[in-house]
Amino acid sequence: MRRTAWSAAALLLPLTACRVSYSALDTASPEATRITNLHWLVLWVTGAVSFVLITALAIGLTRRRTAETREGYRRRTWAVAAAAFLSTLVLLGLLTASVLAGRAVATPVGPDALRIQVVGHQWWWEVSYPSEPPSETVITANEIHVPVGRPVLLELSSTDVIHSFWVPNLNGKKDLIPGRPTRHLLRPERTGVFEGRCAEFCGYQHAHMGFLLIAEEPDRFEAWLASERRPAAEPSDAAGNHGREVFLSSACVLCHTTQGIGAFGHKAPDLTHLASRRMIASATLPNTAGYLAGWVVNSQHIKPGNHMPPNLLPAEDLLDLVSYLRSLQ
Ligand code: CUA
Fold it and tell me: What separation in Å is there between the alpha carbon of 202 and the centre of ligand 1?
């Protein structure tokens, strides 16, 4: 019994240490606050209107019918006109609030904004931090790091079908339409790990097209960016060396890039710093050796229809390959 309790505590510890928030009500930016305020305004106003209507209906239904008089007819006409006028006023008020909120969340940003390119693929997110010289560009997947206190301008595009980028804690949704690049503003006000999702049905694995957005202090962000600029780590032991050989001699390199070792595929997530990411499979599974091995052997069991074929490797090759991938910090 005691052992079970300890195991449960050990499992819960990492979860409490890193709380991932996914809620439009737990706002972390001025844009999200604006949208949430609009949500409450519409909810309260429509709630009040519903209450008034239901009360009026109940009074009307329970009143005793009396003979029609000229005076009664005139009163009813006035009541209907007043109700129509009030409804128009309320609708105009809500429309104005909605337009103002829409303008506020599309604030133009200055040249100091951090530019990040995000490309939607079926069913994962490619993330790049363009840099000068271009060799310093950082490319990663399904995990977006941003600094707090500096506007972030996302340049969004899609290579296949319509996706939609959504981090509820930070801003509204933005559709990614193939052939029509678009922009989206994020201004995180506090550090935290926020979950993002694709919010437009885009095929079989739409529900598993998530990502993490990590808002951190500027110095931590810069340290992360500098670390991601390095080429892939050298294996430190025989298992890692053998794992790298397995990687380079398998079909992995046709789709994945690993900077510095001669793997330049561009169809699938960049693996140069795979081990630095918290999740795999577009924020579907924790990034642990067990899940990674399961994904390599047959990802079709986890995300059926994704573009990675099964890899039936001998057990030793698989273990060494996973050991190598786990070393890519
Ligand atoms: Cu991409 Cu739904």
Answer: 4
**Residue 196 Cβ contacting ligand 1 at under 6 Å:** no
pLDDT tens-digit profile of 35-58? 999 999 999 999 999 999 999 999
Domain span holding position 269: 238-326
Flag whether 166 is in a domain. yes
* C-alpha 270 to ligand 1 mean position (Å): 19
pTM (predicted TM-score): 0.86
> Is residue 224 situated within a structural domain?
no
How many whole angstroms separate alpha carbon 312 and alpha carbon 320?
A: 14
Task: Give residue 321's pLDDT band: very low, low, confident or very high (50, 70, 90).
Answer: very high
DSSP per-residue string spanning 205-269 = TGGG-EEEEEEE-HHHHHHHHHHHHSPPPPP-SHHHHHHHHHHHHSTHHHH-EETTTTEE--SS-
Bridge partners for 145 per DSSP = 214
Distances (CA, A) of 298 to 118, 251, 274: 27, 14, 18
Q: 173 CB less than 6 Å from ligand 1?
A: no
Report which DSSP code applies to 180.
B
